[in-house]
Amino acid sequence: MSKTNSLYKILSIITICIDVAFAIYFAVCGALALTNQIVFCQTQLVVFLVALALNVGFLIYSTTMLLLHKK
Amino acid sequence: MDKKVSNQILQAIKTDNLMLFLSHIKGHENLCFGRFPILSVAYLYGAKKIIKKYRNKLLMYKAYEKIDEPLEIYQKFSAVAGRCLRLYVADDATVSPIEMLAILHMDAEVKKIFRHFSYSKLICKNLQTIYGNINLQKVEMSGSKIKIGMRRFDYHQKKSHKLIALCSAVAIVFFAVAYFAIGFAGGFGTNLSYAKVGNQNQLIYALKNGGNFRLTNDISFDQEVCFAGFSGVLDGNNKTIYISKFADWFVLNNNGTIKNLNVVVGSIDKQTDKSFSLLVGTNNGTLQNVRVSCDSLKLTCNKSKDANIYVNGFANHNNGYIKDCTLNLNANVVGNLDGECFVAGFAGTNSGTISGCEFKANSSLLTAEADVCGIATDNNLGANVSSCKNFAAISQSSKIDDWSPNASGIVQTNYGAVTNCHNFGDILVESTNSKQNTSALVFVGGISTTNYGTIEHCLNKGKLSARSNTLAIYCGGISAYSSYWVQNNQMIMPILKNCASNSKICVSSAHKDAFAFVGGISGFLWGEMFGCYSLCSFETAYDQTKNFVGNCLGSSYLQYQFFGSVICISASNNFMLDSEATEFQIGALINNGQVVANGQNSPSGEVVTLATEQLVKQQEIFWDEQN
User: Fold this and answer.
1) Whether B536 contacts B578, CB under 8 Å
2) Which of A37, B17, B90, B520 could covalently link to B536 via disulfide, CB atoms 3.0 to 4.6 Å apart?
3) Chain A residues close to B173, C-beta within 8 Å
4) pTM for this one?
5) Does B136 touch chain A (CB under 8 A)?
6) Burial (Cβ within 10 Å: 0-12, 13-18, ≥19) of residue B199
7) How confident is the model over B550-559, as a mean pLDDT?
């Protein structure tokens, strides 16, 4: 596999890792919030927005790349 | 050519050894290993240092000194060239550096080099073939420019990108669903969706960190709590916070909004050397629809560094809004300090607005050596107290020398506006001070003790009582003492407008020099009075020696002028009920601290005395408020 292929592979692994980390965070956070152990508030909103922004970024990047390299 | 030298050059390229390359290249720059010129081999092996140093020089060569092609170069080339290999099967074929770059997919480098050098038709044709037919990339050449389209992804690249896109899309959907599900269940903590607070830890978090919160449960604090500051919104959702052990404040500074909340404080018996409030120290925000109750507050205010100590149910200092709040409080406060102690139901100093608040029945504020009133101690210039009601019994006892005890139903000192306020609580001041020739005075007022501002459409129905040993007394149904003050060299007159008093007024003093100035509207007035009425009855009768009782005013000021003298009142349309205790509308006229004239009536009918309550009620100015 070429260097660029390795890079794409690493990028996809990073994406998965980040998403898994956020998923765990939201699962724990949600459980604590729903059992009245923490306040679901601005902090979680910021984390959510960061997670969303990263994933939207990944989505836009990968879709654009797929389209550009198809032409 | 010496095979040893060519081997050394190849070795230098393979290891990107610049020194070795330098020591052997001289005179052999146009060397070509079979089909591969030196620069092509350098690109093939990724010899960056050599390329950087020699690229421009090596690109100049179009004709090459060919030697036998090493097998290892061919093997490496065939591994990367793929279908391009067929372009170079002829023995005389040459893989020029730019073609090598194209085969290696170094498109940016191809564009760069193509701009600076011209190439033969064969090379251009090969480039067309490499890009157009083999790499399936669009390629256009015009003059010194080459446009190369994006390279198609191979299987792995396509797979990686599809995986990223899929993961991202799934994650976006998952996070959105999870976030909104948790948010709707627990609240987002925003203006539109308050975070739900259901237990003590969450409430502590909320009050420490600020934000937008809504209580979902009643919450109890067993330990002392005092939060430094709150900003945001705490919607109590009509739930209750129980505080069994109380510090000096619940929240020291409120810069946000606390609303729809019940606060129940357990019994308090403590000594303090600083101000005390059941809810907040300083309110710069809004307290709305908050109900505070405390069955028993026993407080002894000791000597403090601060000049004044304020004891209040809602805020020591209000710079914001206190709206539609209620207070149930039974307090017993002893002022035992060098400075002064002030007790009021809702606020110590008010520089904002207090409106629609009610000090509930069965409440009481009993103090000793501490001035006391129902709503706010100082209503500052520009501040408002409106539509407030006091049902609490208010009293102060005093025995120390030179202390002027004050008690009133709504505010103590008013420079601002008090409108639509009603007092239904009984008010009592009892002074046992035995010092004679003192400047201290007793002030008792149904609405305000000392008024320099405007009191409009206010009603007193609480019984007013003042008992004194040696101190003079000012007592009035609306204000004890209303006088002008000077601002920017201008006299600002107090205004009593459309006010009413309907209560019993009981005043007595023991010492012969302890004068009492008692009026249905005010104990003293130097100012304006319009559309007021009094249905008050007086326990103490007018006499010419020390009890100066007027059915309207206890006293006013007589100003001497060059053409005579005038009473310092601007008045019209006032109606008073006749009383057996006095035949006068004004008990006495004062000049320079001396009584200079006994009982007076208004000279031009500004105040009218009527024989029966019925007649007063028939006047257009009459209004009443049932509690």
Assistant:
1) no
2) B520
3) none
4) 0.74
5) no
6) middle
7) 95
